[in-house]
Amino acid sequence: MNQEIKYSEQELITLLQQRDEKAFGYLYDNYAGALIGVILSIVNDGEIANDILQEVFVNVWKKIEFYDATKGRLFTWLLNIARNAAIDKVRSKDFRNNQNTVTIAENTELNTVKPIFQPNTDFIGLKKILANLKDEYRILIDLSYFQGFTHDEIAKALSIPLGTVKTRIRTALIQLKEML
Amino acid sequence: MNIKEYILSGIVESYVMGLASEQESKEFEQLCSQYPELVEARTSFELKLEKQAMENAIAPPIGSKEKIWTAIQSRSVTKPTKIINMEPTTRKSSGTSWVAAASIILLLGAAYFAYDFYSKNKKLQTSNKELQSQVDKLSEEQKWMGEVQKMMSDPNVAVVNLVGTTPAKASANVYWDTAGTSPNVYLVVKNMPKLPSDKQYQLWSIINGQDGKLQPTSMGLFDVGDDGKVILKMNNTQKADAFAITIENRGNTGGPTLEQLQSMGKPKL
Prior knowledge:
The structure holds two protein chains of two kinds.
Chain A lengths: L8 H9 L3 H23 L2 H18 L10 H18 L1 H8 L3 H8 L14 H5 L4 H12 L4 H8 L3 H18 L1
Helix pairs in contact in A: 1-2, 2-3, 2-4, 3-4, 5-6, 8-10, 9-10
Chain B lengths: L2 H6 L2 H6 L5 H11 L3 H20 L8 H90 L3 E8 L6 E7 L7 E7 L7 E10 L5 E9 L7 E5 L7 E8 L11 E5 L4
Antiparallel strand pairs in B: 1-2, 1-8, 2-3, 3-6, 4-5, 4-7, 7-8
């Protein structure tokens, strides 16, 4: 793929909708690295991350018609697809079973679908920034953004009122933005 | 609504990062269509997030791109296969309809052949009957011809030439068994015109009476076909001084109409 070519998002989307091979190349060359970084920050496993990356691109290729530019940029859409795919993987039974062999203690916790409260030590990307947040905020972002728990689930798991979860997440996100 | 406060509430980040609830997202999207500054704020955060992600990009494994492309290609190849996969349901119905269509065709075919065989058989039966009747007719004719021939060669059988008395020159031969052993008289018509359907030829045996009057006796009425030729078996007579053929009304029961005498002949005795 010619790296020299620079498509506007609209051009790229149009070409993707036409199932243009060059557009795929451009999409991959420009976004695969960023996306695998995000995926890796959630799954912590290179091989699994690669599988998810493939799944993401195949899905994007199939569902490009569903992208709505009025709702946000293409990368935001890609990022959320990648994040959701990674979270789905983490929450899937086979992934948990594999991970559970590492720690028995976590195993029992995970079997009752309870959030894991230990943040990953090898921070990459957003997670690196996340470390700069106060614990009470960091945990909430980790649970919601990186582990995909709903506000309701977090409120129940941490025994915090739902309203508090919501405002704390928002505050954490504002702080996170300032660190970007 | 104070849009500035809304922008600073953290909803923008929450929405972009996919952490807003469905209701919040709907509201946000709706407000975006009203407030360009909200879209601006959203895009600004999106770009920040994008930049951060790009800076933290990790090189995917070599060959991953080709692998994914192959996967995409095979997916797009499996697209038609998917349609084919759906075919079992379609195929079932189309299969059944195909079978139905085929059986209808077979049925129609069978019906046609059955009818064809039936009609052919019927035709064959008919022609067979025709042939049989022809064979019967021929064998009868042959038998009869045999009789005729036998009679003709019989020295006791007299041949009487009936000579035409009209311009038509209607002529015939009467084979007459004078010995009386054979009960038959055969008339062989050589040349006689076909008559109107209400008329018939009649063969007479004529005896000269003691008083000099002619005594005609009918030996039978007969028809002549288009070719003007016919061989007929007539009533026998023991005695005849002459034979005559007249034209009479069909089914004549009276005497001969001598004005309509066609031919006459005397046995050579």
